[in-house]
Amino acid sequence: MDQSLQSEFPAQPAGMSQEMATELSETGDKPEGVMPGVDLRRVHCDPNFWYPVAWSRELKPGKTIGVRYAEHPIALIRPEKGEVFALEDRCAHRQVPLSKGRVCGQSVQCCYHGWAYGRSGRCIDVPYLGKGKLPNGVRTYPVLEQDGLIFVFPGDPEKAATTHLPAVLARVDDPGYKTRRFGRVVNCHYSFMHENLMDMNHQFMHMKQMGQMRPRFLGQKREPGMVEARYSFARTSGKQPLGEALIFGERRDTSSKYADRDVMTIRTVYPYQTLHIQTGDAEPVMDLWIAYTPQDGEQLTNRTFGLLSVKKPGIPGLLDLAWPFLVAFTERIFAEDREIVELEQQAWRDLGGDHNLEVFPVINLLRGLLAESGFVPEDEAGKTETQSEAVVATENQPQAVDESAKVTAAADDSSGRSSAPVKTGRTARRKRKAAVAAEQKV
Ligand code: FES
Ligand SMILES: [Fe+2]
Fold first, then answer.
1. Which fold has domain 3-44+168-441?
2. Global confidence as pTM
3. Whether the CB of 184 sits within 6 Å of ligand 1
4. 292: helix, coil or strand?
5. Where is the Rieske domain (predicted)?
6. The dihedral of CA 189, 68, 84, 162: what is its sign?
């Protein structure tokens, strides 16, 4: 590794052994086996999943609202009676948003000339035409509503019925927990959000809010469609914030009896993320489910939807009473995270691509998962040459960072999905094939 670079990285990531750090420093800047690939920030989400687009409470009976999935404007319509439905938010006539219209029974009527569309998207009325001359309608999206969220399926509608959400998100149904719903628009590619949550070495940034915490990396796991990281923590200085005490249900100081007592498990189960904190076999004190729905054509903005369930302490009503403190605490943390990921996104724009030097193996596993699960659209495919070298460097990196790490990372798993080389969708695969063919010609 270049000496100047080495001096910029004086400390290895939390819990990383010296041996591991040395190994990484030898492979980190030019990892072997790196394939010509893509800039992760140009990889678009796989649309063949359910994506949250609104909170249920945002859509009152008899109303319609406009939401988005990537470049697709979507009108959500909740009839007075019956389930929510979703249509392309553009009247077939003059492209006026249908979400500006009004709900009439099981249909929505455009505000301009009054064309009406039913649940299937078919145009069912044009007030000034006979019924026999109705034009084509608009696209419809599969919708489901669960745990206070409205989801749409923006991909192939035929896949919607066989693609499932977890039965319950976080612990919303459990009376032993209180759940906070939070989120807002964040101006960055969804991959920055996944990386931020999974890389707990960024506790450094939250020092003002949390005091000094030493994260210890316990291990990682890679399965088809999933990457997991596990950590424990020790407070090394500073006072425990009230918000954290509320989550753990007790006051904690820097004494060793609290050090590394709980295990935090963070998973990206594509395209969602979860985080829970657990002490031994006890029920988790905190359980988070979170998703990042792209909001623009380039997918460089996302709307975050988080469900944060906190275990109620033994004293009834205490958590309700203290809830405003917990909300304020989690908002401050989220604000710091939002600011930093937006700065990362801005740097990507300024530099014209992803020049990250990622040294933490589990984050490279995560980047591999996100890249292989999404796709690169045709118009982005030519811009991928400036990718970070580390994006695809999962295959040859050490898999464990300390003795206790039990790693099941699999380069080739039984499903046939590879965790290592980045698959980047049809376009990029075609490009690689073409490049190989060109090389063979030479
Ligand atoms: S634009 Fe919708 S009815 Fe004319
Ligand atoms: Fe954070």
1. Naphthalene 1,2-dioxygenase Alpha Subunit; Chain A, domain 1 (3.90.380)
2. 0.79
3. no
4. strand
5. 50-152
6. negative
